[in-house]
């Protein structure tokens, strides 16, 4: 019997491919009160709890969650190390809000022969390079990256 555990998988665009959405977000954040934003990278974060081995997680990440041509994935076991100071903004739906994408992934996992997961949630992660302080980043993020009625968010300074 495989123990129930929680796994976090981050899926990001490959660096050699242009990321128009992230470039647009940098402009939006600058105009929303964070003028020193220099770069934004958006990724998806999947949190999956269930009876999965490391092999299961790697397979479902590669075959279901990630487009292997344009995206990379990594299973997060600890906070990622990075170069330079940046802010990490995680945006996820509140627990009371339905997550149809998570439901679709749950059904696909079962169809692929995996055990049914106990829990799946999806978040957007924005890594923002900026010399702005947390109040500026938070104000700009709330205005442009999320809807506080349906989203929860966290902002973390990383280096």
What does this structure look like?
With 159 residues, this protein is an alpha+beta fold. It has a single domain, classed as 2-Layer Sandwich (Mth169, Chain: A). Helix content is 30%, strand content 34%. The chain has helices spanning 20-31, 54-65, 100-111, 134-144, and strands at residues 5-13, 39-50, 71-76, 86-93, 119-129, 151-158. The protein has a six-stranded antiparallel sheet, with helices on one face. Helix 1 packs across helix 4 (134-144). It is globular and about 50 Å long. The model has no long low-confidence stretch (mean pLDDT 89).
Task: Give the total of beta strands.
Answer: 6
| Shape assignment | globular
Strand proportion, as a percent range, falls in 25-35%
CATH architecture: 2-Layer Sandwich
Main beta sheet strand tally, sense and closure: 6 strands, antiparallel
Strand order of the largest sheet: 3-1-2-5-4-6
Total number of distinct structural domains: 1
Radius of gyration: 17 Å
Structural category: alpha+beta
Could you estimate the helical fraction of the residues in percent? 25-40%
Q: How many separate helices?
A: 4
Mean pLDDT: 89
- Note poorly predicted spans: none
CATH T-level fold name: Mth169, Chain: A
What sequence of helices (H) and strands (E) makes up the elements? EHEHEEHEHE
CATH level 1 name:
Alpha Beta
Distance between the termini: 39 Å
List keywords for this structure.
single chain, alpha+beta, Mth169, Chain: A, 6-stranded antiparallel sheet, 6 strands
Compact overview of the structure:
With 159 residues, this protein is α+β, with helices and mostly antiparallel strands. It has a single domain (5-158), classed as Phosphoribosylformylglycinamidine synthase subunit PurS (Mth169, Chain: A, 2-Layer Sandwich), CATH 3.30.1280. The protein is built from 4 helices and 6 strands; from the N terminus they run βαβαββαβαβ.
